[in-house]
Specification:
mainly alpha
Length: 256
């Protein structure tokens, strides 16, 4: 009696939605950055095509290069995981931590330096230079906070991944607010007063939260918490920027 051949059914290979999601979110961040900062990348100038202010030119270029490196790593890291290159992912993570630190340092530095050299009567999103300094200053602090949590919880992927994504998106208001076709949709409205240059970043994040929900069939707890924190935080920044307390603090920083 011949033996019956044993047939092994191979399970179909399934791509984890999280891998596709974070890689896609990183690609979207690259696209937004290239569009918003196209003057910088393709013309070597500042928005909206004017020369970079000479006293801070070196700092602006340095910050731009550091931020470009961070966005590149943000795209590469989830792609490496999707390709099964976890060891290289961990090695680059150490480099990413240093790049992230450079983003924070140069970002806070440029926030203060820009307010220092900006003409007093110059209004940005209806804010004076000292008031507007709150926008990049706190964006840098949000970045640092999410990055710190992401690195601390790097072994808990359900926290690590959304925190690293939120760290990047917390500073995307810089390029997004420079896309006039988007900003002009709400300038002068109540949304401008509440969120200023942060609004389109939050709308983009809201869409990504919904996409993530559809992909995994449930609300991503940590991504949603981060979204709420940023929403409340951005509103507080815009309202706090107009207070005497912030103007005093900004004056102290710019006079140092």
């Amino acid at each position: 009696m011949s033996a019956t051949p044993h047939v092994v059914a191979l399970a179909p290979v399934r791509v984890q939605p999280a891998r596709l999601f974070y890689t896609g979110a990183a690609a979207l961040a690259i696209l937004v950055t290239l569009i918003g900062f196209h003057h910088f990348y393709f013309q070597g100038s500042s928005y909206p095509g004017r020369p970079i202010t000479p006293p801070i030119r070196g700092l602006v270029i340095t910050h731009g290069l550091v931020m470009t490196a961070w966005i590149g790593l943000f795209f590469l890291q989830p792609l490496l995981v999707a390709l099964g290159q976890r060891r290289l992912h961990r090695k680059l993570g150490r480099v990413g931590a240093l790049v992230g630190l450079a983003v924070v340092v140069t970002g806070l530095w440029i926030a203060v330096a820009s307010a220092r050299v900006s003409p007093p009567g110059n209004l940005i999103w209806s804010l004076s230079p000292h008031e507007f300094m709150a926008v990049p200053f706190f964006a840098g602090l949000f970045f640092a906070a999410f990055l710190g949590i992401g690195l601390w919880q790097r072994r808990r992927l359900e926290i690590h991944r959304p925190m690293m994504m939120l760290s990047t998106y917390s500073v995307l208001s810089a390029p997004i607010s420079r896309i006039d076709a988007l900003s002009n949709l709400y300038v002068g409205t109540i949304w401008d007063s509440l969120f200023g240059p942060f609004l389109m970043t939050q709308i983009l994040l809201a869409v990504l939260v919904l996409v993530r929900w559809m992909l995994i069939g449930r609300l991503d707890r940590w991504l949603s918490i981060g979204f709420v924190v940023l929403t409340v935080g951005y509103m507080l920044v815009m309202q706090g920027a107009r207070t005497d307390a912030w103007r005093w603090f900004a004056g102290v920083l710019t006079s140092m």
